[in-house]
Write a structure and sequence with these properties.
- The structure is a homodimer.
- Chain A is an alpha+beta fold and about 300 residues long.
- Chain A is about 40% helix and about 25% strand.
- In chain A, strands 1-2-3-4-5-6-9 form a seven-stranded antiparallel β-sheet. Chain A has a two-stranded antiparallel ribbon with strand order 7-8.
- In chain A, helix 2 crosses helix 3 and helix 2 runs antiparallel to helix 5.
- Chains A and B meet through strand 2, helix 6, helix 8 and strand 10 of A and strand 2, helix 6, helix 8 and strand 10 of B.
Chain lengths: ~300, ~300
């Protein structure tokens, strides 16, 4: 178990991703380092009002605390209350163009300690895509890149982590998935540290290949006020999921995390409208019908 | 204990309030009755894109269920899991003019039952104001009307419920109150049903006198894009509070409530911006400094 190696990988991943996103946008991300009085700190790399990204951030953080919040490990509540160290990279990008999807990626490493007992460690993470307009080509590309990332670790990983993602990013009060999914995993600590770390690195390294080709295709499409309006409306669902259900967000807010860094995931401009439904023959209705439901994107 | 009398009062209160708000706005509220397959239903009265109200709703609902969610009664978790009946009126109004404050009012009546045991009932409710620009006159008027509503029930009620409101409507991750407060109470069942019902009626009847004079004064003030922008930014705090902390919202979403009626509290247009701070000499900074902190608004 080597937390320093994980730390170094996460920092270099953040740097690589930001450098590439800055190239795409043309605008330098704002660098906001912070420290936390209770221990730890991080660096947020933020973009707002860019040419491509309306708002987004790529955050690195490393925090420790005396009490692991219950939201930190879903399946092992017995760990709650232990002292912990948590480090991770978390990113959310909200492009301005409504044809370009919002994307989220996260990799985290946690260590829970208790007196002289052996520390318990685990990884979690994943990436998922939230389109406002559906393109099958994009969904297939994103999912096949996720599958490629996990392929070396066994053929069952992608289907398992894909299903986990569908279950996790589900807005229960809407009966709707947040987007078209991707992969999600938590509590990963088998068969051993090196193997888990390899898997997590593969996920991190596959983020840019999964997202950039989609962004490059869609960011240049012409759009109008109607599409912007639907994007703002659908972004409301993103807010609802993140504030009501997302364990990463709740973990951050509960553990006294840095609010602005955590809430960089929220979109720049959002609309709510009462009981709105798209015209059944519209592209907006097609998004709900064909994309916002669990699907096997890699079936032939 | 007389649930039918409470039901009738709530429906007539909804009608009175909507009639008066329609007069102010000039636009008829949209009437949306709904039923719930598990039992109960309600009627949402919704306004969007009105002359005065950009979005708002005055909802009546009456639902029953087999399992009272834990969020329903904060101080008596032993009631969780009982069967329940809940009825209430809940309103949120988001005026378009940034000088006119957002307002919230709620009155609820709950009955928890368990086999042959005596049913346990209680009232909860309150009202609170969320300005975007601070006016001492408005804060004093709102709070003095709240005090008037509670005065007949003992001089200690207003200070207790005022403090409860300050504690309840607090956004912990921001270290900020949601607005300038008002009154809040829960678990009210003493000294007896009639007395509690009188108190609750007095709160309901004081809503229009508390809010309308403020609305009438502020809705006519000229404003520009800067004020609209700050309003949209501050509305983000309203969303954060309601989705992360508000027990009424969580109770509704957890108990399989009607999502669109519950989330009518969310503002029509909201902005998030990274780590934004107002110019220290601005009116926006004065809101934080002088209004967004617990204050005794009725001190001489």
């Amino acid at each position: 178990m080597n937390p320093i190696a994980v730390n170094n990988y996460l920092v270099s991943l953040q740097n690589r991703i930001v450098a590439e996103l800055e190239r795409v946008d043309g605008r330098a991300f704002y660098r906001d380092p912070w420290i936390r009085s209770e221990g730890g700190g991080g660096e947020s790399r933020i973009v707002e009002d860019g040419a491509v990204f309306e708002r987004g951030g790529v955050n690195f953080s490393k925090v420790s605390g005396q009490q692991l919040p219950p939201s930190a490990s879903a399946s092992r509540p017995e760990l709650a209350g232990r002292a912990f160290e948590a480090m991770g990279v978390s990113l959310v990008l909200h492009p301005r163009n409504p044809f370009a999807p919002t994307v989220h990626m996260n990799i985290r490493f946690l260590i829970a300690t208790k007196g002289q007992s052996e520390p318990i460690w685990w990884f979690g993470g994943g990436m998922d895509l939230t389109p406002y307009y559906g393109f099958e080509e994009d969904a297939r590309h994103f999912h096949s890149t996720c599958r490629d990332a996990l392929e070396p670790f066994g053929a069952d990983r992608y289907p398992r982590y894909k299903r986990w993602c569908d279950e996790y990013f589900f807005i229960r009060h809407r009966g709707e998935p947040r987007g078209i999914g991707g992969i999600f995993f938590d509590d990963l600590n088998e068969p051993g540290f090196e193997s888990c770390f390899d898997l997590v690195r593969s996920v991190g390294d596959h983020f840019l290949p999964a997202y950039l080709p989609i962004l490059e295709r869609r960011r240049i499409l012409p759009y109008g006020e109607g599409e912007r309006d639907f994007q703002a409306y659908r972004r409301g669902r993103y807010v609802e999921f993140n504030l009501v259900y997302d364990r990463g967000t709740l973990f951050g807010l509960q553990s006294g995390g840095r609010t602005e860094s955590i809430l960089m995931s929220l979109p720049p401009l959002v609309k709510w409208r009462y009981d709105w439904k798209p015209d059944p023959s519209s592209e907006e209705a097609r998004l709900y019908r064909e994309f916002l439901r669990p699907r096997d994107w890699l079936a032939d």
